[in-house]
Amino acid sequence: MLKHQATIKEIAQQLGVSISTVSRALQNNPRIGLRTRERVWELAKQLHYRPNPAALVLKKKQTHTIGVVLPFLKEEFFSTAITAIEDALLGYNVVISQSRDNLEREKGALTTFLSSRVDGVIASISAETHHYLHFRELENFGIPVVFFDRVPRNVPAHKIRSNITQAAKELVDFLAGKGLERIALLNGPPQLEVAEERQRGYLQAMNERNLPILPQLICSSDLSREDTQAKVHYLLSREPKPQAIITFNDYVSLHAIEKARSEGVIPNQEIYFASFANLPMMEYAHFPPIASVEQFAYTMGQQAAELLLQLIQNPASDETPYQEVWVETKLVIREPGV
Amino acid sequence: MLKHQATIKEIAQQLGVSISTVSRALQNNPRIGLRTRERVWELAKQLHYRPNPAALVLKKKQTHTIGVVLPFLKEEFFSTAITAIEDALLGYNVVISQSRDNLEREKGALTTFLSSRVDGVIASISAETHHYLHFRELENFGIPVVFFDRVPRNVPAHKIRSNITQAAKELVDFLAGKGLERIALLNGPPQLEVAEERQRGYLQAMNERNLPILPQLICSSDLSREDTQAKVHYLLSREPKPQAIITFNDYVSLHAIEKARSEGVIPNQEIYFASFANLPMMEYAHFPPIASVEQFAYTMGQQAAELLLQLIQNPASDETPYQEVWVETKLVIREPGV
DNA sequence: CTGTTAGCGCATTCAG
DNA sequence: CTGAATGCGCTAACAG
Predict the structure, then answer these.
(1) Would you put residue A22 in left (φ > 0), alpha (ψ -120 to 50) or beta?
(2) CATH classification at residue A257
(3) Is residue A334 in some structural domain?
(4) Residues B259-293: pLDDT tens digits?
């Protein structure tokens, strides 16, 4: 039982040298004699010495910790992004916090991050988030914030995003190519820029193809299963019924399809479903959306981490412009004949 | 732009009092006059003062941080457990690290935890982990470690576990009740106690029911899709073929079923599949296992967190016995007529 | 009721 | 080549 983490002071005492000698030796400072350095290193190893990060933080003003807030870890899109962030931020501690699509939780996470003096923050905002003051506060303290995927709307910030507008157009084009006309949009919370973009792309494509834009076929869910299914019920009771429904993401799609089936609809036959994310688990789903926009979660996480790293290293003066990085998407079609 | 976190020193200077007065006032120490306390609090608020945790750590020897290592965040069982841990450990920072079923990564995570002086660790070991020295090292430094679900085999430790042996028996009983006799076991890595328990329960139940125990129908996967599918190929080429396959968990089951289908088997008709975990996503799977053991991930995470909290608070002398907590399981049958 | 001081573990400046 | 002294932000024992 050691029960105690060794300090340079102890090493110094045992070796009969001064603390600063040990400190320097441990940093392989050439000013310290080779012989001494070796002795110090040896004893350090023997005592399982590890520098106390708290002391380092106090001196260096850098915690080597970054905070990540995102809605749900259980969504594979986000857990994959986390993996990328971990990989890109080797040497940093990554503290993760789930907002669970709740603004108050999100604020709480940021407060914790501020208190613990993280060096930077990566965020994907909650479905409830309609202002970004809590993020701005971090920036006021010089802590850079990079958003990915769910970025705030109409707000200058560092953003890693997919070209959702374009992807939404491709989705409409694909469905229209199948001869479908009444295409509905079951979107996510309007305060999310990614929702606005879906709608923009949807409208553009519908217009370009001279398809009818029916306001009653455009609605949005707060992403809960209940709300999604209520909206599906609403859509299915319109006249004429939609022939296709584009949903905010694969989870919404799954919930939507479940509801549609319970109302007697045969998915991707009577009504086509298409969505965003292209989660791996869709491969095993009974009734997956027929098409989904692959969003490359790993790449997004990676880009976010790399940008943050850059912002942390370069002082980030007040004049530094906000960066926007665009990540490719890819339309994945699931042919029915499996 | 503030760009600078205020300190008690600054507050003290601006108020013309001493540092310790401020420190005490902020702790609402009654020794400080009410008037002074109010002034301190007010200025602190105004300056957005937040205590520097690094300084606190240096004094108090407590980081209020706990580390969690587990195989994959993207497995819903684990992300749910994390959520429970977060909920139970309010006020603590939770640092998460994925081993990705890799021993070296697991060791790396623990080294980081040791360096950063976490107050405790919660772990679910990797598929490769066959010794626990890296965990013992933390304990040698007085850092308590609680394992959940994937606990090390034949090693005294704090463990939160399901009664897997019992659950495995129920699984066999269920399948035998359907008149099936040749029941195979596609298990996980043998070094996991949870794998051993599956086998124990399987063997017991098979024996009690006088069913044939065929060694060639018992094998284990390293949990990768490839290995799982290779083992399925092996099982399907035995003579006589198994009538049912119990798999390590739902993911293995999904991969197994996928392979079986590609070999022309109709799942849960020609060959029945049953497994552990009962992931919510199974509800949407095309060919889910017919039965799955619900393991209550949230409860397990919660119990782990609560036990850890207790260990952190109670000094944990060398005499403290290792605790074992058992969490209920529940057999969930998915009736085919959906 | 309040101030002074020491010290947590470490890097670093200034002296030898 | 090495040591002494200082300070990072904070608490707490000791002194008034």
Answers:
(1) alpha
(2) 3.40.50.2300
(3) no
(4) 999 999 999 999 999 999 988 889 999 999 999 99
